[in-house]
TrEMBL record:
Residues 178-290 form the Alcohol dehydrogenase-like C-terminal domain. Its cofactor is Zn(2+). The lineage of its organism: Bacteria, Bacillati, Actinomycetota, Actinomycetes, Kitasatosporales. Keywords: Metal-binding, Zinc. This is IMP dehydrogenase. It comes from the Bacteria. GO terms for molecular function: metal ion binding. The keyword Metal-binding applies. The keyword NAD does not apply. Pfam families: ADH_N (PF08240), ADH_zinc_N (PF00107).
Length: 345
């Protein structure tokens, strides 16, 4: 089969790889129908150490079940399924508490001998707990939106849920990538009436307005903080959903959050130390939350609105490439000429 590997910064290759095979009775083999490039894939694209063997890439995919291990129930060959970006048994104590990204028997694609999703096929560990059957055909027009359940929609929703967004709360979303835009959509779904989107790419922020943003702030840093404060009578917003991951975004979050408010981070942090002392979080009673989204916990909740056509999160995809052209997809996203790239193996 063909699969995507990253060998170093900017070095993405699509190569021949061994076909995946069942290794455990809890495994499944899935033929991938749709995959995509994630904004978080750009972090290793910039700084992954050079290696000779390459790292399997891709953690978002839809596919068709081709083989099932002897202990997998609830699935059949031929089922169209979506896979969260973390696999899990969905039965351990952490899974039952809704944190499948901390599953005792789980893990992440492209690690520990498990392949990535930017490929023609993949072995799925803990298939029964991981895969969710989709009630549509393989050629459904809903596939792009259903693919967002694998990561970016669930991640945006996680940001809003962890921030306890509700009709009473005002919201600032930092970042106009796919996760930030779907955090806007999620905040609107949870009832927020005032949503300020901080982003500087007009085509993206226009989509953010379609998803529910009431205001757009293109400025960054202190200028951006001042603009949000001005829009909120100097107070800031009750919640801040940070979907970027850089220190500059965290500093803006601290700058625009209202006393007693919540900063919810879902952008993968590219730093280990950040201000949390009296002058930043402690003094104004700010709550800091967020983390890797347990999207498996949200799939059943979010899918019905996609199936009914009430929401269309798949609008974040603005370019489609064949598997052979995945390196071009990375370049397009890195150069900001594409918001999110859909892959059709």
């Amino acid at each position: 089969m063909r699969a995507t590997f990253m060998y170093g910064p900017g070095d993405v290759r699509v190569e021949n790889a061994p076909d995946p095979v069942l290794q455990q009775p809890t495994d499944a083999i899935v033929r991938i129908v749709r995959a995509c490039v994630c904004g978080s894939d750009l972090h290793p694209y910039h700084n992954i150490p050079v290696s000779e063997q390459g790292t399997p890439m891709g953690h978002e995919f839809l596919g068709v079940v081709e083989e099932l291990g002897a202990e997998v129930s609830g699935l059949r060959r031929g089922d169209l399924v979506v896979a969260p970006f973390a696999y899990s048994d969905n039965t351990c104590v952490f899974c039952r508490e809704g944190f499948q990204t901390s599953c005792r028997h789980g893990g992440f694609w492209g690690n520990g001998g498990v392949g990535g999703g930017q490929a023609e096929a993949v072995r799925v560990p803990q298939a029964q707990g991981t895969l969710v059957k989709l009630p549509v055909a393989e050629d459904s027009a809903l596939l792009p939106s259903l693919l967002t359940l694998s990561d970016v929609y669930g991640t945006g929703y996680h940001a809003a849920k962890m921030a306890r967004v509700n009709p009473r709360t005002t919201v600032t979303v930092i970042g106009d990538g796919a996760v930030g835009l779907l955090a806007v959509l999620s905040a609107r779904q949870l009832g927020a009436e005032r949503i300020i989107l901080m982003g500087r790419h007009k085509d993206r922020t226009d989509l953010g307005r379609d998803f529910g943003a009431t205001d757009v702030v293109a400025e960054r840093g202190e200028e951006g903080i001042a603009k949000v404060r001005d829009l909120t009578d100097g107070d800031g917003t009750h919640t801040v959903l940070e979907a970027v991951g850089y220190m500059s975004a965290y500093e803006m979050a601290v700058g625009v959050v209202r006393p007693g408010g919540v900063i919810s981070r879902v952008g993968v942090p590219q730093y280990e130390e950040a201000p949390i002392g009296f002058g930043s979080l402690f003094g104004p009673n700010i709550t800091l939350t967020g983390g890797p989204a347990p999207v498996r916990a949200y799939i059943d909740e979010l899918m019905p609105d996609i199936l009914s056509g009430k929401v269309e999160p798949g609008r974040v995809f603005d370019r489609t490439v064949a598997l052979a052209d995945v390196p071009d997809g990375y370049r397009a996203m890195d150069e900001r000429t594409a918001l999110k790239v859909l892959v059709r193996p």
